Amino acid sequence: MSTSSASLSGAHSPVIGIPVRLSITDAPGADLRVAAAARTFAAVVDLVRASGATPEVLLPGAGLQEQLARCTGFVVPGGGDVDPALYGGPVDHPALYDVNQEQDALDLAVIRHALAVRLPLLGICRGTQLINVAHGGTLHLDLAPGLVQHNPPTGTSWALHNVGFVAGSVCAEVYGAAGVPVASAHHQAIDRVGQGLQVTARAADGCVEAVEAAQEGAGWLVGVQWHPEAEVPEPALRAPLFEALREAAALVSVPC
Fold first, then answer.
1. Active-site residue among 71, 113, 125, 161?
2. Would residue 227 show up in a list of annotated catalytic residues for this protein?
3. What domains, with CATH codes, occur in the chain?
4. What's the average model confidence in pLDDT over 25-30?
5. Regarding beta strands 121-124 and 73-76, do their DSSP bridges make them parallel or antiparallel, or are they unpaired?
6. Alpha carbon distance 243, 63 (integer Å)
7. pTM of the shown model
8. I want to staple 159 with a disulfide (CB 3.0 to 4.6 A). Which of 7, 86, 90, 149 is the partner?
9. C-alpha distances out from residue 127 to 199, 211, 221, Å
């Protein structure tokens, strides 16, 4: 997908901003996970479009503020590891990969704009981790093997497991269920939950799988550790979060 076709027309559809992935996927010796993140980014854009919203790929630079002003909702997708310096973690941990400070800066600019003007915000995997960091939270640098496999087995794209929702949460309402099967691909996760966030989903091992705004009136905010854009385990579960984001963004009458 080219950035020239990133802003797609939609007569009455809300515009959903999605920060572009900046890491080079075809560099010699590039981590295969970087290319995988680029593919899932394209899937996120497609699902935003399929929801009835207009996706706008957000680019770093002088024009970012103008782009942000056109949007009434945002998705911050997956990608490489967040720079541990942003939450006081060790920057030399051997499990770190694809730490990209320019990507962190772009994603955080989008998150902070959405929070400041209370526009709907959906975080996916890394995006959720950055939402937590933006609220003063921290991350597990590398999850130890345990009851639930969060990182895909060798030769596969996704680790499959179940998550359970807190009753009354946005996630429970969106999916109309007490929990759902999900697809994951992460070795990091939320550790200390940031101020202003509440945990609304966990895996069987206790891993934080979703966070939402803790206070009424804070705006529509959902961060999920799994990848709803994945085509497994159940294709019907791909759309609900993106449709809920579109519905929330459609209620914003004037871009901020």
1. 125
2. yes
3. 13-250 (3.40.50.880)
4. 71
5. parallel
6. 28
7. 0.93
8. 149
9. 15, 11, 12
